[in-house]
């Protein structure tokens, strides 16, 4: 917790009031989620990103109660639905049931299923709420363009770590429903969207940031590891196609 506080304090000092500070406070243990969320409040953060409790596969009613309990703490909550990592899917109809909580404000939807946009909007309406009660954010770079063109509000992106301005501009075009511009801007990034997951995130993207000179090392704590040399060429080629690296 002391290490987390140090990171949050620096973040608040550097960017508070410039961009929203959304802190990942989700974990498997609800008591630990509370502890981390209260710390984020004390540090002056703006919202929490709360992943579905992983491994234990709670039922939908348990997930709903979990999110309402965390939202009761007072910090705005962005639900993080990522079945591929957590092993449980918080379904649109269940999201609709908790959308009326004043502190549940957004969903990071990382299934890669762009139909979830319409399904979550419809679930909100089925519970007597406006369809746009929640901000819907894609958590899957490969489908983010269609997610936002289809009515989503934006993304929480891996690719943005190495191409922040281009992902921002891509989202602005998608919000304007300018499909031609979206396709033009996204075409050089498509391979990167895919190959930055050649090993578990954040292994490849951290290596890519080091390769660009943005950070000093690509070390990750065990049980993760640095990107295997077997994949260096793959990621480099994707970065070159995206215009992030150039041959000497």
How would you summarize the topology of this molecule?
Blueprint: H1 2-15, E1 22-24, H2 30-43, E2 47-51, H3 60-71, E3 77-81, H4 83-86, H5 92-98, E4 104-109, H6 116-126, E5 135-138, H7 144-149, E6 154-155, H8 164-175, H9 179-186, H10 190-195, H11 203-211, H12 232-241
Parallel strand pairs: 1-2, 2-3, 3-4, 4-5, 5-6
Helix pairs in contact: 3-5, 5-6, 8-9, 11-12
Tell me what you see in this structure.
This protein is 46% helix and 10% strand. The protein is built from 12 helices and 6 strands. It is α/β, with parallel strands linked by helices and 248 residues long. The protein has a 6-stranded parallel beta sheet. The protein is globular and about 55 Å long.
Can you tag this structure with a few keywords?
alpha/beta, six-stranded parallel β-sheet, 12 helices
In short:
This protein is an alpha/beta fold and 248 residues long.
Q: Please state the structural category.
A: alpha/beta
Q: Would you identify the regions where 5 or more consecutive residues have pLDDT less than 50? A: none
Number of strands: 6
- The geometry reads as globular
Largest sheet: 6 strands, parallel
Mean pLDDT: 97
Q: How many angstroms does the end-to-end distance come to?
A: 44 Å
How much strand?
A: 5-15%
Counting H and I runs of at least 4 residues, what is the number of helices? 12
Order of helices and strands: HEHEHEHHEHEHEHHHHH
Strand order, largest beta sheet = 1-2-3-4-5-6
Estimate the helix proportion, in percent.
Answer: 40-55%
Radius of gyration: 19 Å
């Amino acid at each position: 917790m002391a290490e987390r506080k140090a990171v949050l304090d620096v973040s608040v000092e550097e960017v508070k009031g410039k961009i929203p500070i959304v802190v990942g406070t989700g974990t498997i243990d609800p008591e630990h989620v509370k502890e981390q969320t209260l710390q984020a409040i004390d540090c002056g953060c703006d919202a929490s990103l709360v992943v579905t409790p992983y491994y234990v596969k709670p039922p939908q009613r348990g997930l709903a109660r979990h999110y309402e309990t965390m939202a009761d703490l007072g910090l705005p909550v962005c639900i993080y639905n990522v079945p591929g990592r957590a092993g449980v899917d918080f379904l649109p109809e269940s999201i609709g049931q908790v959308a009326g909580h004043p502190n549940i404000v957004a969903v990071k939807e990382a299934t890669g299923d762009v139909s979830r946009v319409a399904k979550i909007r419809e679930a909100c309406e089925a519970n007597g709420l406006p369809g746009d009660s929640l901000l819907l954010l894609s958590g899957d770079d490969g489908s983010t363009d269609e997610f936002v063109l289809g009515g989503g509000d934006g993304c929480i992106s891996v690719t943005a770590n190495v191409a922040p301005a281009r992902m921002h501009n891509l989202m602005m075009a998608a919000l304007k429903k300018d499909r031609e511009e979206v396709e033009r801007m996204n075409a050089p990034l498509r391979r990167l969207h895919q190959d930055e997951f050649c090993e578990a995130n954040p292994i490849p993207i951290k290596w890519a940031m080091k390769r660009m000179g943005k950070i000093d090392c690509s070390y990750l704590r065990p049980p993760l590891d640095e990107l295997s040399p077997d994949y260096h060429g793959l990621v480099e080629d994707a970065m070159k196609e995206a215009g992030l690296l150039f041959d000497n």
